[in-house]
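Re: duplicated header lines in exported structure tokens

Our pipeline writes sequence and tokens for each protein into one text file. With two proteins the header for the second block appears twice in some exports. Here is an export where it did not happen, for reference. First protein block:
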Amino acid sequence: MTRMMHFSRRRRGWAGLLGAAALAAVTGAGCSETVRTGQSPAYIIIDRIEGSSGASNSEPFTGVLRSDVVTKGSVYEDNGRAALRLALKDVTNPTGPTTNNHITINRYRVEFRRTDGRNTPGVDVPYPFEGAVAVTVTDQTVQAVFSLVRVQAKLEPPLITLRGMGGSLVISTIADVTFFGKDQTGRDVTATGSIGVNFADWADPN
């Protein structure tokens, strides 16, 4: 009887240890999933996204874009610029990224939203759109230039309704820019960054 009780306690002990190990494994997997997206061992870091108004060739790239809906009777596209680099998900890798880890971006998507929750495209904010961009991201920072506000957006609601209003009426938005690409082994990689875009009939440059 004593031997049976001893054996039972050992079984319960092993069961407890296995249960704790299983719980730790599940917990660890859940934590790691929060920092992993896709199957590529590399991911994209967006250091910054900036915008430049097309109203003037001399407009610098800034962290908030003032988009002019009409400039001297014409409309101009506004460009965006992103500073990108890659990193490995396995921070213990002693060799660092290889050429297989380089990520080639081939397209992007821009979606506009407002913080007041009024986000109907064509009514409250410009329509989302996708565009092509070709840049290969390595562990050294590279820049990607792309169309942030298309000409078409300034020719349709809600931006066209801002004409003639000066700075008395402004639509303040956040543009979420998602980049889509693949590493050199064909595995998908995406990354999203944001920039503030304020639309109005700003004063025309001289």
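Second protein block, exported in the same file:
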Amino acid sequence: MVFLTGVGCRTLLDILETQFPLDVLKDALAKTTLAVRGPKPAGVVKAFGLHPQILVPEPNTWRDVLHALDVSFPEGLTGKRVAVQEYGVSNPELLEGLMQRGAQVTPIPIYRWTLPDDLKPLQQLLQQILKDEIPVLLVTNAVQVDHLIKTLGDNSAIKQLQSVLPHMMVASIGPLASERLRHHGFPVDLEPSHPKMGILVKEASQAAHTILETKRRAP
């Protein structure tokens, strides 16, 4: 069982508790190899009275999940059933990587990231960015980039954003968000030393002045 997020792990366990007696559920999970991506799902699992056997290290990307499983199962995953607690959107690269290793994969979607019903605040913010009125952009997950593209709508607006962002400081919380930004031709000026929200905000605030001054002086 692969737990990818703390809130998803907690929600899944809460749902299972409505279907099975607690002792039966704990006994079943105790017989299952539990892999957790980072400290948040690890904390939920431990609070449930269990101990994860596989701790995925930072920066907790899908590649790190696969590497951690490769270390624990050097012989591969052929014939093993692997359930993946998903988050926000499905991760096809992770699921494909598991299947390539021979696993029988069951994705478990817990929640979905979607755009808000009222897009006006986001659209107003984008207009401020396009007018070069905002100097710093913090991106905290890859899906935000896709939502940004969807909200912009047409290629001319996307090209305008591509021309504006090099004058701003763009800070990405980690490799997956950075990969998505670069995929769309957007710059990445900073990744924090650890992929955590608080550290992103702190290190972005510390680096913003220097990065923006360097950009302003560039020809």
